[in-house]
Structure formats: structure tokens, C-alpha cells
Write the C-alpha cells for this entry.
Amino acid sequence: MQLIFIGVFVIIYGLLNYYIGIRGYNGISAKIPVNRLLYWIIFVFFAASYIIGMAARNHLPETVGRILNTVGGYWIAAFVYLLGFVVIIDILGFIGRKLDMIPGIIKNNTWFIAFAVIAAVAILLAVGTYNAIVPKISEYDITINKKAGNIKQLKCAMISDVHLGEIVGRDRLRNAVELINGMEPDMVFITGDLIDGSVKPVKNGNMLEELKGIKARFGAYFITGNHEHYSNAVEEITEMIEETGVTVLRDKTVKINDSLYIVGREDMDGQRFGHKRAGLTELLEGVDTSLPVIVLDHQPSKLDEPRKAGVDLQLSGHTHAGQFFPASLVTNMMFEEDFGYLKDGGFNLVVSCGYGTWGPTVRIGSQSEIIKLNIDFAE
């Protein structure tokens, strides 16, 4: 069944790329001479790079894999916008021809439309790259109406979806740690997808060494995301992270300073790889819920469970806020809250759009972020 799905996807993807490619060739060649064979060789390389890079990621030299994933990632974003522009132009052209409303200057200079579309997509990718690699600090003030021992306020840093690997490297993680330390946090939360998929480039680049630089009074805590499980090396990743001094919470609960609880959940996709996910009720057995309870859960799904369990604050990521339009419309429909802050009675939820990116290093309608949480407790 999976092979059928992959086959159908490749056929549809190939046909849509051919549609874009032939429209581009006709438009460009109307103005300048273009070698047809060379054009299609370059076009197919762009269109197939990411699929090849992902399929052969464990068998290619690291540099080759990085090139394929970078080129292919950008093509994914370009493909989405090129397809949108071409479809809109063809629909308007069809209507214009039927109504005989196309101005002569456009009829005689169709090449201009092709170059205008290419320029528009290039600008979108440039802006999207800036949004993806230049992070912002998003700050939220949260009030939990419970006493937390002698703690009146917590300053916390939260980072999600770094996606370390072929594209996001050690320098980006180093920058994140510097920004986190600049907040002088009491606690740091890493809410999944720290690693993109393959653990090999992370190990070869000794990337996780940067986590040792995190400074927080009550420590740093990590939970798994779906990509840690996709790596098929989640146990190895767990061990690597623990060696940095970061506490890994895989269906575990810890009490902090006899004042509050941190509950770290196994990602729900772990069940597909044989890692059972405990129910939240099970994880809260023996927990004094008169104290604040903070849950770390990578995917902001099935929110009735933490609501009913009396959770005070859940921290999630996963969605990337769609990463770039129009995917943001999809995540907005899929999740009750796909980005930002939700308050419902005593339940609070913060969903990060992420620090890194999956696929293209492009964000349109979102920006790479690290979250600063100012949490006030009852006196």
C-alpha cells in the first residue's frame, strides 16, 4: 500500500513539474535562445534533488546529501509558488481569450510574464530565507493560579523543531544557545524534533556539544518529536542528549524544587515505531495537582486530554505554523491552535512555529523563533 502511495505521489509530482517546466520553457525561449536538452537536465535535477537526497540519505557522502537536500528543499518552495502563479495565469489567460480581453502588448510579449514570475518567486525565496535563518524572540506572559512553593515567577526559554542535520548545522544551534542564555532562564524546554532525521551528520559534526553551554537554574529538559522516531535511532539520540547534561523526559514526570511538576511525553508518532506512549492520567498518578503542572508534548493534538487532566500549561511545537503559505492554511485547519498562545480557563497552551525548518530553508508568513515564557504563580 505504501509503495502504491509513493508511486502515485511521484507520478502526480512529475506531471505537475512537467506542466511548470514546459510553461517556463515556452516563456523563456520566446525571448532568448534556450538549449532544450540542457534546460530539461537542469530542471529535472532541481525537481528530483530532494526525493533523491531523502531516499539515499544514509548511502550518500554527507556533502552530496547536503547539496541535494538544500537544492531540493528550495525547489519544493519554488514549486509551490511557481505552480500557483502558472495556474492563475493560465486561468486568466483562458478567460481573457474567451472574452477577447487580452491586451496586444501582453499577447506579443508573453516572455515578460515568465520572467516576472521567476523574479517574484526569487524574491519570495529570498524573503523566506531571511525569515528562516534570522530568529526572533517571542515573549508570552502566563499566569497560573496555583502556588508553586517559594517560587513566585519563572523565566523559561522554549525552543522547538531545530531539525539539526544536513541543512541546519552546529552554528545555528550555537546561536540558539547564546540567545537562550541571554534570557537568563530558570528552565529551558526543548520540545522535540531537535534532530531532523538522520543522526549521522549530527554525530559527525558533534553538533549536540553546543547543548552543554545551556545555563539554567533548574536545568534543561528535552522530549522526543516525530523526527527523532523517524531517524530509527531514538535510543541513541536519547543517550547523546543525556550526555550533554540535558534531561530527557520520555513519558517521565519530575518534581522541581518541591514546587511544580514537569511532565515530558513520548511523541505520539513513536507508537508507529514500537514505542508505546503512556496516557496522561497514568503519568500524573501520584502527582499533587494542587501544584502547577507543565506538560511538554511535541504535537498540539487531542487537547481535551490535558484539559481534563487539570494541566496548567502545555508547551508544543511540530506545526511550523505551516512554515510557508499556503501550507499555513492546512495546519490552521488541522490543529485547534497551530501557533501562538491559547488560554481556556485554567489551561494554557503555547505552540512554537519552530527554530529550524523542514525541507526548504524558507518561511513565508512565519519566522524562526525562540520563546521566552514569563510564568507568574499565585502568591
Observations:
- The longest helix spans residues 62-98.
